[in-house]
Protein: DUF1329 domain-containing protein
Amino acid sequence: MIHRNTYWKAALAAAGLASACGALAAVPASEAEQLKTTLTPLGGEKAGNKDGTIPAWSGGHTTSVPGYKAGGKRGDPFASDKPLYSISAKNLDQYADKLTDGTKALFKKYPDTFRIDVYPTRRSAAAPQWVYDNTFKNAMRAKIVDGPSGAIPEGAYGGIPFPIPKTGVEVLWNHLLRWRGEAMYYDMLGVLGTADGKKVVTVDGRADQQMPYYFKDGSPEKFNGDYWTLRLINNGPPVRAGEGIVARFNLNGDEQTWVYLTGQRRVRKLPNACCDTPTPATAGVMSVDDIEMFAGPNGRFDWKLIGKKEMIVPYNSNKLMAPEKTGDVIGSHHVNPDVMRWELHRIWVIEADLKAGKRHQAPKSRYYVDEDTWNIVLADRWDAKGQLWKTMWMASTVMPDLPATASTTFGFYDLISGTSYTNVLANEKPVQFKVMPRYSDSVFTPDGLISEGVR
Structure:
């Protein structure tokens, strides 16, 4: 069963209040004070668990690996850790209550090769003090209101919007507005895995991303709602070299996406950059709202907060970036278990059920959100027949230079067809998630795309 933590009863009461009045009010100052006592500054439970398998949070990891150079290969601060135990198809039942449905399905589909190595839990999440300060303010000023494409936050800025969440959609917005720095550059590959075990590179690109929501000198009054902006330029494969895409994600659900196609020599705005529409950033392999586990408007679904549970999830995944070759990371049907680090953490569980009269390839989804970082670390999606269709995962990388434990590589396994996709693989790249000074906003415009996307 899902463990109902100390917030659970309050969450149910607040959900009823929200449905009655159309908006969920911020928490009172007395409750927000928990962020300075029993909760971490971003809203996780500060204490460890009863049996000591989850330690107390003590400030996160803020010390860079010796020899690290900004913009270079990222080292593993926990490289000396050894697995506490391993889970295989043979002993799966012993740990089933701490695994997602999708993870258990992978053991059944690939019993001879899929394995989970569980390492000591490291509560590495951290952020600058000004993000903690804004998170405290958000707890008392942010609320959920009805937007044109779903439920949206109002009054939040520069920190986790709902560090003491009461509803599923608040937890979702904590993920969408999670701390991952102000601006970043990275080189990456996207690789499709076919059902017969072949690997096909669909994108070899360079990306610039910016989080205007986290401009340090901003405020709720100055913020225009564009919380995530992204520009991706393809260097390959040859058939796609020179293509580019710019996307601007806005709180109100008005996603604006432009693509540059070399054959046409022009930039075009996508008419429906939303939801289960295939995204050009992955050559159409993933949908828009598969990106980084969920992206874009939430209005097609009813969101339910299930509760919080101790679960074994991918975490502190710097080890994933250590191999020099992509082929050492991805096996025939899944990521090489030798390079994947799993840990026991407290996880918020939320569900999305398709509203009556709405359309989506996945009418039901379940998302698993880390309490410390607010990264969605795992997710499962069911198809229209009720079959468990797709299980998704996202790695988190310790970045003391931000500081943060930020989302990086992500992907999915199609449990029905046997295909898979892994995106943002940086192993063969000299630049692995370089923290950048703030970009000019013009970078994330059609004109900025024209200047870069040429052949």
